[in-house]
């Protein structure tokens, strides 16, 4: 059914537009410095969070490249990729990683999971726009992550939970 397929495609376009609208709000709420960690009823938008901003880069890249996205969605998503990548680059702890929400773990050089999420996002962007990323930062993060790993391949130091290595750290 061509009509059914067309409706499905339009539904996907609307979903992409709404997702981008929410991401724009989450970014504007924190002055364009990444995206907010979330929205809390009664309090409003919370602070910027490098981890959330990192993995959000993957979504923004997909929105910018999708043939289902309208031109305004693609343009706005690309603008957000550029500004968010620059913001994340400015937070990098040289030779180490990324601190967590509200600076958690900064004294230890960052948090493993948060650094991994930022790395995941930056590598996604690097595939399509390497000029936006700083390869020395990417190399520094990967070195720091490798050096922080326990001999058995788990991360127990520099974790949010202080010694636990949840399975989702493997992402």
Strand content: under 5%
- Biggest sheet, spatial arrangement of strands: 1-2
Distance N to C terminus: 39 Å
Structural class per helix/strand content?
Answer: mainly alpha
Number of helices: 5
The H/E string reads: HEEHHHH
Query: How is the main sheet built?
Result: 2 strands, antiparallel
Assembly state here?
single chain
Average pLDDT level: 89
**In angstroms, what is the radius of gyration?**
18 Å
Silhouette: globular
Q: Helix amount, in percent?
A: 55-70%
Number of strands: 2
Low-pLDDT regions:
none
Fold and architecture overview:
This protein has helices at residues 2-28, 50-65, 71-91, 112-128, 135-148, and strands at residues 39-40, 44-45. With 171 residues, the protein is mainly α. Strands 1-2 form a two-stranded antiparallel sheet. Strand 1 and strand 2 (44-45) form a beta hairpin. Helix 1 (2-28) runs parallel beside helix 3, helix 2 packs parallel to helix 4 and helix 4 (112-128) packs antiparallel against helix 5 (135-148). The radius of gyration is 18 Å and the shape is globular.
């Amino acid at each position: 059914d061509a009509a059914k397929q067309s409706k499905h495609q339009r539904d996907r376009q609307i979903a992409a537009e709404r997702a981008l609208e929410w991401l724009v709000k989450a970014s504007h709420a924190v002055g364009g410095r990444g995206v907010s960690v979330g929205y809390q009823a009664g309090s409003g938008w919370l602070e910027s969070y490098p981890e959330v901003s990192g993995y959000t880069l993957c979504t923004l890249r997909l929105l910018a490249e999708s043939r289902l996205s309208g031109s305004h969605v693609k343009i706005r998503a690309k603008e957000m990729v550029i500004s968010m990548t620059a913001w994340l680059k400015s937070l990098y702890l040289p030779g180490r990683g990324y601190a967590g929400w509200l600076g958690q773990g900064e004294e230890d050089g960052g948090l493993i999971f948060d650094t991994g999420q930022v790395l995941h996002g930056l590598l996604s962007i690097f595939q399509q726009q390497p000029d936006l990323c700083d390869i020395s930062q990417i190399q520094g993060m990967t070195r720091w992550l490798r050096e922080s790993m326990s001999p058995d391949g788990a991360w127990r130091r520099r974790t949010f939970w202080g010694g636990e290595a949840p399975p989702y750290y493997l992402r």
